[in-house]
Write a structure and sequence with these properties.
The chain has 69 residues and is mostly helical. It is 45% helix and 6% strand. The protein has one domain.
């Protein structure tokens, strides 16, 4: 039976020597999936923070800033 433990020179157990296998899924994904939802959420957070920064810098909200142009 193959042991999953590695012992170094001083007979000390090295638990971190065995790396887990990495699973990569190269299939194209369309529609609602986890990746597209993460990207959508991150873009929404960037947009929200950008609108807050615009309000702090100009002193007006988005509609007030657009109406003053």
């Amino acid at each position: 039976m193959k042991t999953r433990y590695v012992v170094d020179h001083g007979e000390l157990l090295n638990n971190f020597a065995i790396e887990p296998q990495v699973y990569v899924d190269d299939r194209k994904q369309l529609g609602f999936n986890e990746r597209s939802e993460k990207i959508n959420g991150r873009l929404a957070m960037i947009g929200f923070v950008s609108l807050l920064a615009l309000e702090v810098i100009t002193g007006h909200g988005l509609i007030g800033w657009l109406s003053s142009l």
